[in-house]
Description:
By secondary structure, this protein is mainly alpha-helical. The chain has a domain at 18-49 and 61-92. Helix content is 62%, strand content 0%. The protein has four helices and no strands. Helix 2 (22-46) crosses helix 4 (81-92). The chain starts with 5 loop residues before the first helix and ends with a helix.
Amino acid sequence: MTIDNSIIASTAFDPKNIVKTDDDKKLKAQTDNFEAFMIKKVLDISLKRENTLFGKDPGDKIYNSMYNDTMSKALSGGLGYSELLFNFLKEQNIK
């Protein structure tokens, strides 16, 4: 017995479908940026390397900040906070 998944796949929720206009795209970009900012703050706090095995170099703070920034941008949009905020602002008609 085989199951036809084509109907399910075509009706599955796709977050890209909620973004319809240019204003929606701009709002979604801003909510993704806000989520990335929040993730970066969490990473900055949680990934402090105070007791390291090796000595500190002058560029450690810069490297760690760049690493956390890249990780936060990669993780943004996937935790659901951005989508939650987007839907709330969309319902409130805030632009």
